[in-house]
Design a protein that fits this description.
This protein is mainly alpha-helical. The protein has seven helices and two strands. The protein folds into two domains: 123 residues, no CATH class; 25 residues. A two-stranded antiparallel ribbon has the order 1-2. The longest helix is centred in the C-terminal third of the chain and has 23 residues.
Length: 158
Amino acid sequence: MDELIHVVEEGFGELRSDGNDPTLHEELAARQKPLNFSDPGQREAHVRAFLAWLPKVLHDTPGIDWTHLPSNVMGYLIRSVADSPDAIPIAFAIGCAMDSIRNRTLETYSHQLASLLRRLRIQYGMSELSELGTHQIWEQFVAWLTTFTDTVSGSQAT
């Protein structure tokens, strides 16, 4: 990760690149306004920014054409998942699902998966993804979920 170059543009957030795409850096530096992942006219820039961010281990994943990922999901992953220790598995999961579900659903699942893994790390002390295979982490999560659901149900009944 030390070889990663950080490109920061006001309003854009942090973009990580391995430095293999100098034209991307020039494009971002010349840009007058931040990259807007809701603007279909910037699709080519979205793909280039995403591929610059995407961890190298995922670039040539069989069966996943990253250029088909919706722009809004690309933007979310770059802006919100980039510094997560779960960036690779989240991106991989989203890449596997992208041809099977609608774009809006994919975006929702991206948020939910990142949120779940963040909660498991922060609230339940998960430090390795392998802990997802243990009963302990899920028992703690279900106990919290049950308490949360009961609390919400109780407040709605009054």
